[in-house]
Design a protein that fits this description.
By secondary structure, the protein is α+β, with helices and mostly antiparallel strands. It contains eight helices and 13 strands. It is elongated, with a radius of gyration of 45 Å.
């Protein structure tokens, strides 16, 4: 309709232009013959015709401009009308589809109501039961999604907190490296000085032997390490000289990480961390070491497991639990099952479970066999856990079992010297850990 109207207007305008141009052509045609004795009249008539021609051309140009403007407006209106018509057609199609769907659904509902009259009561009960089961499953699914979102928010909070701690600790350690000062004493530290007269200590026992007795962060360089690294030294527990290799106490650090993370180490050396398999191998792979494991539940009960022999193989050996023996303590021996096993992570499966991956199934990284009786790098799950999360927490089977995730766990090593006791003194350990031993 709009298109026909526009075409008519444009046609009229074209005809008017043609007529005007014809009249201009005829009127402005110069006369080619002259009469003798009438030059004056000729010049005058020529001047008049020239003025008329200019006036007609001016009017023509003005009319052409108006026609062009009207044409552009009409084209714009035509496009807008076409767009609106197209939009209306789409809406009409959508309405028709909705009406058709509604009619179809109404028809099915009517047929269902009619057929229901002829169905027996048992069939109705079966349908209702199926519907109730579906509703219940949907409700459970929604609850799982909500729980997952809560866990995700909690993880995000932990990550932000840990990033902040790492940034602060890194800045602090950088300043210490620059100034070569010991963080745990007000005086210059032998542990952080790298001078030719006094080499860097191989471990925390070496630092202790030089007279330092305050627990804290020190720099060491084991015999076969290419460069020094920072460690936390415990100078108090059972004679001191211990190097922390694992520390967890609040769940702020994610331990469900990959092989390279466990190889090089991660976390905050002043908080939760894993020292790194390569560093642990450098500390324990060439000399006889002892291991102390400290555990705490959410009721503040503290227990320990001491091993007089502990050593980790190289990366080529899969960082296997190469040496383990001489257990004593009150936590129970939940590590002996893992003796000889290679270390596994979720992206490097070296366990003996042929059908699966213990690290993935138990949400951790450990010396899994097929699979475990301890999982101190598992998830931080806050005490008692449901059956479907069994074995996934930070657990020690002989202490609280696989359905209890511990509050704290620490692992520390030191070289066995001639003065090392055959077992950790319960009294000295209790003085460090508390009277619950």
């Amino acid at each position: 309709m709009v298109g026909v109207y526009c075409f008519g207007i444009i046609s009229v305008c074209v005809l008017v232009l043609v007529q005007i141009r014809s009249s201009v052509s005829v009127t402005s045609e110069p006369r080619t013959h002259y009469e003798d004795g009438h030059n004056y009249h000729h010049r005058r008539s020529t001047t008049v015709r020239s003025c008329d021609t200019e006036q007609m051309e001016y009017r023509l140009a003005k009319l052409e401009a108006k026609v062009d403007e009207k044409s552009e407006n009409l084209v714009a209106e035509l496009r807008e009308s076409s767009r609106r018509i197209h939009s209306l057609e789409m809406h009409i199609s959508e309405v028709r589809r909705i009406v058709a769907d509604f009619s179809s659904e109404l028809g099915r509902t009517t047929e269902s109501n009619v057929s229901t009259k002829f169905q027996q009561a048992p069939a109705q009960r079966a349908d209702n039961e199926k519907l109730e089961i579906r509703i219940e499953n949907l409700s459970k699914g929604i609850q799982l999604v909500v729980a997952a979102l809560r866990n995700l928010n909690s993880d995000i909070t932990w990550v932000k907190k840990n990033i902040s701690n790492i940034a602060a600790e890194t800045k602090y350690l950088a300043l210490l490296e620059r100034d070569q000062r010991l963080p745990t004493t007000p005086t210059d530290s032998w542990a952080l000085k790298n001078t030719t007269s006094r080499p860097i200590a191989r471990n925390c026992r070496d630092i202790q032997d030089t007279g330092y007795s305050v627990s804290g962060i020190y720099k060491i360089q084991p015999e076969y390490a290419q460069k020094p690294f920072m460690v936390f030294c415990d100078m108090e527990t059972s004679g001191g000289g211990w190097t922390y290799i694992h520390n967890r106490f609040d769940g702020s650090q994610d331990f469900f990480l990959e092989w390279n993370d466990y190889k090089t180490g991660f976390g905050n050396i002043g908080g939760e961390f894993w020292l790194g398999m390569e560093h642990i191998h450098q500390l324990t792979g060439n000399d006889l070491n002892e291991l102390l494991v400290e555990l705490v539940d959410f009721n503040k009960r503290r227990v320990y497991a001491h091993y007089t022999a502990f050593g980790i193989g190289s990366e080529a050996e899969g960082y296997n639990l190469k040496v383990l023996g001489g257990y004593s303590g009150n936590a129970g021996d939940s590590l002996v099952y893992h003796a000889g096993s290679r270390f596994s992570t979720k992206d490097r499966d070296q366990d003996r479970w042929i059908e699966g991956n213990c690290a993935k199934a138990h949400s951790g990284a450990w010396w899994y066999g097929g699979c475990d009786t301890s999982n101190l790098n598992g998830r931080y799950l806050h005490g008692d856990i449901p059956e479907d999360l069994a074995f996934q927490g930070m657990y020690w089977d002989e202490f609280k079992g696989s359905r209890y995730s511990l509050a704290e766990s620490r692992m520390m090593v030191r070289p066995r010297g001639r003065d090392s006791p055959d077992m950790v003194s319960a009294d000295s350990t209790m003085s460090r850990m508390g009277d619950d031993y």
